[in-house]
# Entry
Amino acid sequence: MSVFITQDTPVSDAVLNVIAHLPTPSLAATVSPAFFQKLSDADFMRMAVLLAQKGYDEGGCPIGGVVVDNVSRQILGKGHNTLVQENHPYNHGETSAIRDAGRIDFSKTTIFTTLSPCDVCATLIYMRQFARVVVGNVTSASGNEDLIRSKGIEVDILEDPVGIDLYSKYRSEKPEQDIEDWKGLAALHK
Amino acid sequence: MSVFITQDTPVSDAVLNVIAHLPTPSLAATVSPAFFQKLSDADFMRMAVLLAQKGYDEGGCPIGGVVVDNVSRQILGKGHNTLVQENHPYNHGETSAIRDAGRIDFSKTTIFTTLSPCDVCATLIYMRQFARVVVGNVTSASGNEDLIRSKGIEVDILEDPVGIDLYSKYRSEKPEQDIEDWKGLAALHK
# Structure
């Protein structure tokens, strides 16, 4: 059976959204490897934003992440924050995508994240020795880019205005959920 | 229906092992709250070691964790490393127990861990503002106790010789799995 998304499929938010919603193990049966090879960094970041949108639509925190092989440009892992959906106190955009990727050699990969990494995600990124991190929003939060760079990891800022607007809207709608996600319930109870 | 494990049940490794294996949400229907109130810190650490033993028996890394309410002494979360079992690149003893606990206020809790926390777990412990950490093995690994203390969290060392022996045995049997668990596959490929 031939795959539905081929080298000739035009890149659009609609097709990136299908890929965002497909389980990672299903991509081999549904998308041509050649399609991924034509995607730009901005396209992968937009896919991470579409994962953030999925999280927002589920009532969660709109933060997404995608792990990509540096040579083949295939997606190895992806996901979004599931604080609300999984009752999960630290499944952020990055931890979610890394969990999805499983036991792989992350030193051959790039992680795209829609928001500047928190301390836990920044630490996981350097402990798993990623080659590169691309950050889609340092307008709403920032701080750990220099820490990650100090560990020898390339950090690029590639802001996505759709993702920044989505996060701003969410933060104004659910400020307490935003605080819990960053600092835990203890920060709200003080 | 009355619970099977009551205030009068003697504390033994056998009964702690039943509790270690029961899903956390099942404890309310199976164990009297009064039983937990008589458990010492060393008993909770032994339960974490029994979780580590469960992980070892499954072919995984023998590291366990238990999150306990500081007042009621009830178990709020527990788990063990699942690098192998869940193909999970950072589900350590601590991250596993914290995931199991879900969205709670960790500032009212203590986490018992059978092994000195790695950078990611230490960071998660201070970001979620635990009141106290009890570490069961600083003989095989250590380093982050001072970092955690510097964030205002109480750290106690309460070494469990059974857990230390188990970890030493595992490390000599599977040195590459041990390195992957700490540093990722990248460290093995270099």
Chain A touches chain B through 33 residues (CB under 8 Å). The beta strands of chain A are 64-69, 75-80, 109-113, 132-135, 154-157. The radius of gyration of chain A is 16 Å.
